[in-house]
Amino acid sequence: MARKNDKSSEVQKWLRVVKSYEKEFAKWEKRAGKVNKRYRDERETESTENAPHHFNILWSNVQTLIPTCFARLPQPDVSRRFSDRDPVGRVAALSLERSLDFEVQHYPDYRATLTQCVKDRFLGGRGTAWARYEPHIRAQALQTFIDGSQVSEDETTPAEAEALDYECAPVDYVHWRDFGHSVARTWEEVTAVWRKVYMTRGACEERFGSKGSKIPLDATPEEMKQAERENPELSEQKRACVYEIWDKEEQQALWLSKSMKEVLDRKDDPLELEGFFPCPPPLYATLTNESLIPVPDYTLYQDQAMELDVLCDRIDGLVKALKVVGCYDASLGPEIARIFTEGTNTDLIPFKDWQKFAEKNGLKGSIDIVDLAPIAAALQAAYEAMEQIKDQVHEITGIADIVRGQTKAYETAMAQQIKGQYVGLRLRDMQQGVAIFATNLLRLKAQIVAGFDPQTLSQIAAVDQLAEADKQYIEPALQMLANDPIRSFRIEIAADSLVQIDEQEEKENRIEFLTGVGTFMEKAVPIIQVAPQAGPLVIELLKFGVTGFKVGRPIEGVIDQALEQMKQQAQQAPVDPERMREQIEMEVKQQLQMENATKEFALNKRAADLDIREMKFGAEQQVAKLQANTERAQLDNDRKSAEGDLERRDGEVKQNAQFADQETRMKTERASFDEERASYAKESLDRYESDTKGMDEALASLVQ
């Protein structure tokens, strides 16, 4: 009876701890829920016709900040803690890095978990994840034999057994409502963490055996309660809420349900992790040293966001009011209204009583249109106010216009560069927080992967594909990974930058590595040829340089092997000074002979080049002379042609002069002819007048 009471008291103790957390974080959870609704733009008045308009700047900021801090999947970076000559540590680090790379790239859980945690960080202010070990077991048929007897196939008795198929280390996203910890001021003071796991009846029985069938299915996630109220059929999908609690002080993990008065299961340090907790410190937004209750980023500029909503709603009203409306004199009939309803381009509307309409000053005296100038001015002022408030929000959040892809035409490149640096300073803390969270989660995964079965780890890391010089260190490297203290002392696990990088970085790193090694070898090979005893020193210097390049790690084993061979050769063949001097003199002579031959070859080549140039110059001179003669002949032909043209032009000029003389004579003759004709006409007129006078006198005398 006392034992039952002890179990019940232990459950009550943890329920009090959970209740204390829920009471402490109730206000934050309510605030985080409102922020998530605002992000999804859920409105209470969504079904009404005159719902107020909103400007969802929260969605805009989150969509900008998430890719700024988490643009690509981080790559595992496992290396020796000290860059010394440690082939076992190097092979162990390489094997673990290849295993982690397979886990991260092959399974989608790491990417999805990081994405969801980063989104929670920028909405509610806290993102949490949980690492676990997941073995996959397969059934294996065994054959049972009797000692000393031969059993045929018909007499074989198969027995079912379990065998390890493969292992993995997934990381789970934990919703911000389903995570909890002991109330503390800082994460270092936290002594217990837990998460809520919603399990079906089958999952409960599979996990907890007979106890699982007794757990009431009376819980659903918080997000499903609203859906249940709208759709009662979902209430049939209720599950059991199991608390998975990890107690750091007792170094044990236990599972319990609020509906039962006993612990469902208990394990002592299940994963044997370095920090015991299976979750990294959460990805927080704004924290102070007095509490682990985060402050969502939205609360820091919610007043400005509300002002944006007010302005957006007013702009909507002004836009609706910005239309051509007015009134007219109804006594004039409906013809005036037809001007706006039926009239099109160049159309005229007939008016019956035009005299009466004209006496009332026509359209000006019959129609009055609403003045849109004040509405347009108010709309312009509202838009300007919105821009000012958005600038305030971006100043608070650290999002400058250069990050949002916007700039101003009058800004110089230096001004944009300064703004970009300022943005980097403001966002660096956010980026570093995401990188640290990803690294801590990757370290938990690495610790679990290091505890895999050696055969599984060898297959995941594909150690059989390593260089021949490294294969001798595979077995001790796997043993070192299984030893937690030694692994922590000699191997360091990290994740590279999460911000988007240039795709050419890997190529540039390899080119830089090959260039550096090639330059070094170009200088070092002659030294080794002259003084072979300096070979080990040269190889050590080469290895010292190679260890600084991540891309050079796979060939470190080859360098180590070459170094050992050179040391063995140096020990097996002692150096004779006299022989060494003769060898050096011979090599110097050979080098001088090669240099002389090279110089002679260069002189001969230069002489041949001069001959070729002289022949080429002579050919060019002949071509130039031929071209000059051709041009001279062409000039002669042109000159003769020009002289003929001049002669023809002289003849034309002379002929034109003759024509001019003839024209002058003709004009003179015409003038003389005109004078004669005028004189003849005068004489004819005088005779006509004299004859007429004579006839008149004769007629008069006859009449008398």
What does this protein look like?
With 704 residues, the chain is an alpha+beta fold. 58% of the residues lie in helices and 13% in strands. The protein has 20 helices and 16 strands. The protein has helices at 2-24, 26-40, 57-69, 87-106, 109-123, 201-208, 222-230, 302-321, 335-341, 354-359, 362-366, 373-397, 413-450, 454-461, 474-482, 484-490, 505-530, 535-546, 556-572, 577-703; strands spanning 76-80, 126-131, 134-144, 157-168, 171-174, 179-181, 192-199, 240-247, 252-257, 263-268, 283-284, 286-288, 291-295, 326-328, 367-369, 491-495. It has a five-stranded antiparallel beta sheet. It has a three-stranded antiparallel beta sheet with strand order 5-2-11. Strands 1-16 form a two-stranded antiparallel ribbon. Strand 12 (286-288) and strand 13 form a beta hairpin. Helix 4 (87-106) packs across helix 14 (454-461). It is flat and about 185 Å long. The N and C termini lie far apart (192 Å). Residues 142-159 and 499-504 have low confidence and may be disordered.
